[in-house]
Amino acid sequence: MKDTRQPPVLAIQIGNTRIKLAVFQGVDPEETVFVEKADLAGAVEAAARLYELIAAESDASVVIASVNEPVAGPLVGMLRDQLTTEVYRVPQDMPVPIGTCLAEGATPGVDRLLNAAAAFAQLKQACIVIDAGTCITVDFVDGEGVFHGGAIAPGVRMQLKALHEQTAALPQIDFAVPEGTAWGADTREAMLRGVYHGARGLAWRLIEKYAEQYGGFPLVVATGGDAATLFADDELVNQVVPDLVLRGIALAARGALDPEAVSRLIEPDSRSMGSAFRSTGETPD
Asked: Tag placement on the chain: N or C end, fewer CB within 10 Å?
């Protein structure tokens, strides 16, 4: 079934490792591009190409969310020059459409809030969001759509880097899913098992703790660059949706243009759900 028309958005996520860009004209992104964070020229080129797909629409917008200000500042200026249109930022120019219940003065990363907003907008029920990227975050959203915070831990690649840099003997290795026996027969295999099962065990334990506190097991959604590798076959993880932050940016943009749009998007009608939320084990592009 076709999506009801929604204002088109070029959503740009600036992370600690990569810049991700996606064009939305409905619930799901039409095209997603990944660029290394140092390649600002490449990011501008990708943004210009993607923006051409929606530039003719009067309500088209370009919206950025960033957890990496040294990259975001220069990129915003370059995009404004190249696209000759305003470039908006979340949360500086528009809020993330989700409530919070946090300690006074708490400032959670905008990526965590956007993940939570996108997950709740589609599921419309209590959920746990795991983001497996540079860091691993495990956050809880209650049944009213309120973000309560969660936990932050090093991502698997950060762990492997720390093991190498903080010891004299452990090698520098790339992350991969360990295969074979339960135990590692050499140093590399032992390191891989430590970070792989450690990350999965961390998520399991936190899911159990959140469910205990909440009084029931919420749905669990995993996102981020390593989500499919870590959780596609995990029995406690209901869905892997690699682009939650980008979906949250599109949601924030549409909410700013039309506050009622967000209400329409979170109607509990599965026909309006994005395809990524109707499948389990989706892997990144």
From this structure: N
Which residue, chain included where needed, has tokens 């981020």? 224
Name 55's Cβ contacts closer than 8 Å, sequence gap at least 6.
Answer: 85
CATH of domain 9-155+194-278: 3.30.420.40
Angle between helix 187-214 and 156-165 (nearest 10): 130
The reported pTM is: 0.89
**96 vs 89: CA distance, rounded Å:** 10
Q: Where are the domains of the chain?
A: 9-155+194-278
Those residues with Cβ within 8 angstroms of residue 191's Cβ, 6 or more apart along the chain or in another chain = 160, 163, 170, 171, 173, 184
Which residues are known catalytic residues?
Answer: 111
The candidate with the shortest Cα–Cα distance to 251, out of 60, 1, 11, is: 11
Does pLDDT of 272 surpass 80?
no
